Amino acid sequence: MQNIILDSYVAKIHYFCSKSDGSTGFEMINLFRDISIRTKIKNIGVLVMENGSFEYGKSNQTFLKIYNQKKVLNILRNVELSRIELSSVSSLDKKTITNITKELLGKNQLKVIGHSTMGIGRPKEILGLNGDFTYCIGVDLGGSYISGIIMDFAGEVVCSHHVELSNHMEPDTLINISFNLIDNLLKKASMDLEQIEGIGISIPGFIDKATGLLILSENLPEWFNIPLKQIFEERYGLDTYIDDCSRLMAKAELWYGKGKGVKDFLVFDLGLGIGCGIVIDQKIYAGASGKSGEVGHTVVDVNGPLCTCGRYGCIESLASEWALLQQVNEALKNGTETILRQVMGESKESPTVRDIALAAELGDDYSTDLLIHTGKYIGVGISNAIGLFNPSKVIINGRLVHDNELLLNTILDTIKIETMPQIYEDTVIEESDIGLLASAIGAATLCLKKYY
Ligand SMILES: [Zn+2]
Q1: Cα 60 to averaged position of ligand 1 atoms, centre (Å)
Q2: How many angstroms separate the alpha carbon of residue 305 from the centre of ligand 1?
Q3: pLDDT on residue 31
Q4: Which pLDDT does position 59 carry in this prediction?
Q5: How far away, in angstroms, is 302 Cα from ligand 1 center?
Q6: Could you give the residue range(s) of every CATH 1.10.10.10 domain in the chain?
Q7: Less Cβ around it within 10 Å: N or C end of the chain?
């Protein structure tokens, strides 16, 4: 690979690109229309990191060293390897690999996890990430729950905590519950703040990533212009990162789940709202202004019900968790014949999605019809997105489909019916195996970006 340095002026230009080989530099140069900027490139070549921005060093050596260290860590995040295997996978010569792994072992970012006796010669050390190197906190602020984890450097969840919320809460209350949850996690893991790298927060909504300001969250009424980053940094004194829950769910799949090694895929976050994380060429696609993936707010019925976004007939207004519960509560109020009230018990004011799924399993016609109706709308939304992106894989996750076979099967059947057969047959559709902690895991990965 050609080594490339950009001076600080040019390096400020951000460019989303997946390639990190020599050809990328030429592609980028073609993008520069301003000849005065173009002449400022001192050498040819570009290093494009995962966050879509350039990183550059003061010298070629610094630049290349950081790049190669990140390359090795990225490979070992996916698979544990010997130095010879690392050399082959990374296309770096054995001497470079020896030097890099020596430094990373010295920093405690890597550890020897075993020995391989395969092949000739002495047993070879197998290297992997050292989970104990550092820890991150990930918090998923859903509209109806908060989940939190402590995750180690190798991506293992050390401990988790989950709190169900009964109603929409004001920002101050929810933030205080989040503080309690973080304190609880630290206590559970017997850790203190010195051991924590940072805090990542997942929230549904539009976020100014530079300032960590939550601009708005449709699923959290009253949440406008909340300086979330600042609030958490002041409380804990740790770097805090914020991003949208669906994109973070996709990040978790990309790093640790069924998206590992998959070039292009979509992750559907089916919960209180309906979101979509888009991965193109192994990078999260955030959109021109960081608002991609709003599949839930595509209109499927122009005469449909009012949505949280202020328009009518979005998929989310017909088939999200909040829409489902709104329809059920209306039906219960109107005396619709259903066993839901018995299933949910007298103590609850409103059923949960799990109650509806259970009632359907017990043969309740109303709940069965409702889940089929909901599944069809979601299936149409996913099918439309498949038609737009032609992903090689679709991963389905979220509280709506968790332990809800009827809904999941209806979604899968609808996708099959509504997607063009030629596109459908090229698409693998799977349920996530990370499950409900995916957005919290994705949030925790935000704290590790300087290493990868
Ligand atoms: Zn909407």
Answers
A1: 49
A2: 10
A3: 43
A4: 58
A5: 11
A6: 63-133
A7: C
Tokens matching residue 47: 């290093």
CA 87 from centre of chain = 30
Q: How far is the CA of 213 from the centre of ligand 1 (A)?
A: 22
Task: Tally Cβ neighbours within 10 Å of residue 228.
Answer: 23
Q: What is the CA radius of gyration of the chain?
A: 24
CATH assignment of 136-250+439-451, given 1.10.10.10, 3.40.50.2000, 3.20.20.70, 3.30.420.40?
3.30.420.40
Q: Write the CA distances from 392 to 246, 264, 384, 415, 430, integer angstroms.
A: 18, 6, 15, 14, 11
CA distance 176 to 356: 31
Kindly report the CATH class assigned to 63-133: mainly alpha
Helix ranges (H only) for 260-320 are: 315-319
Q: Which of 370, 371, 367, 380 is nearest to 301 (CA)?
A: 380
Task: State whether the Cα torsion 339-344-347-350 is positive or negative.
Answer: negative
Q: Report how far apart, in Å, the C-alpha atoms of 292 and of each of 245, 275, 351, 353 are.
A: 12, 9, 32, 27
Residue 27 amino acid letter = E
Quick count: other Cβ atoms within 10 Å of Cβ 109? 20
Position 10 scores a pLDDT of 38
Q: Which two tokens stand for residue 336?
A: 């619709």
Cα(216) to centroid(ligand 1), Å? 14
At CB < 8 A and 24+ separation, what contacts does 293-296 make? 293/244, 293/246, 293/247, 295/268, 295/381, 295/382, 295/384, 295/385, 296/320, 296/381
Residue 233 dihedral angles phi and psi, to the nearest 5°: -70, -40
Burial of 127 (0-12, 13-18, 19+ CB in 10 A): buried
Range list for CATH 3.30.420.40 in the chain = 136-250+439-451, 258-433
Average of per-residue pLDDT across 194-219: 89
Task: Please tell me the distance between residue 261's alpha carbon and the centre of ligand 1 in angstroms.
Answer: 33
Burial 34-51 (b: 16+ CB within 10 A, else e): eeeeeeebeeebbbbbbb
What's the predicted TM-score (pTM) here? 0.84
Pairing of strands 145-152, 157-164: antiparallel
Instruction: Specify burial of residue 30 (Cβ count, 10 A radius: 0-12, 13-18, 19+).
Output: exposed
Q: Is the pLDDT of residue 260 over 80?
A: yes
Q: Which of 346-350, 386-390, 424-428 has the lowest mean pLDDT?
A: 346-350
